Amino acid sequence: MNKVIIVGNLGKEPELTTAKSGMSVCKFSMATSEKKKNGDQETQWHRVTFFDKKAEVIAQYVQKGQKLLIEGKIVYGKYEKADGTVVYTTDIIGYTFEFLASKSDAEYQPRVNNKIMDNPNVKPDYGDDDVPF
C-alpha cells in the first residue's frame, strides 16, 4: 500500500492550471516540522498535487501559511535537464484534505479566480454527490 498522511502549512499560494484533457491541476509546496530531542526543529518540504474538483477547491479556499492535513500517495520520478543532469523528484498526489484550524485562520478568506472574495460566507455548491473532501 502506498499511503501518506502529512500535516503542515502551505509554503506558497496554490497554482491552478488546466491539463490538455481539461482537468484542473493544483500544485503547491507544503512544510512539515518536527521537533528533535535536543529542541531543534527540522522542517521538510513536500511538493503536493491535487486534481479535478479538489484542485479547484484548494485553489479557491487555501492560502499560503494555512494548515492542512493531506492524505495521498508518494510518486517518484526523474527527468533530465538540458545540460544532461538527471533530477530525481518525490511528489505527493493528494486524494483528500482537511482544513485545520489555527489561531490565525481568521485572516483566511475564500478566493475566486485567485482573488479574495468579498463575502467569505459564500460557499460553493458541490451538489449532493460531489463532496470535495
Overall tally of structural domains: 1
Query: Distance N terminus to C terminus?
Result: 21 Å
Strand order of the largest sheet: 1-3-4-6-5
- Mean of the pLDDT scores? 83
Kindly estimate the percentage of residues that lie in beta strands according to DSSP: over 45%
Q: What would CATH call the homologous superfamily?
A: Nucleic acid-binding proteins
Q: Note the main sheet.
A: 5 strands, mixed, barrel
Gross morphology: globular
Oligomer: single chain
Rg on CA atoms, Å: 16 Å
* CATH topology call: OB fold (Dihydrolipoamide Acetyltransferase, E2P)
Structural class: mainly beta
Instruction: Give me the count of strands.
Output: 8
Bin the helical content.
under 10%
CATH class: Mainly Beta
CATH architecture tag: Beta Barrel
Low-confidence stretches: 112-128
Order of SSEs, N→C? EEEEHEEEE
Q: Please count the helical segments.
A: 1
Characterization of this structure:
This protein is mostly beta strands and 133 residues long. The chain has a single domain, classed as Nucleic acid-binding proteins (OB fold (Dihydrolipoamide Acetyltransferase, E2P), Beta Barrel), CATH 2.40.50.140. 8% of the residues lie in helices and 50% in strands. The chain has one helix and eight strands, in the order E-E-E-E-H-E-E-E-E. It has one helix at 52-61, and strands at residues 4-10, 15-18, 24-35, 41-51, 67-80, 86-99, 111-112, 115-116. Strands 1-3-4-6-5 form a five-stranded mixed β-barrel. It is globular.
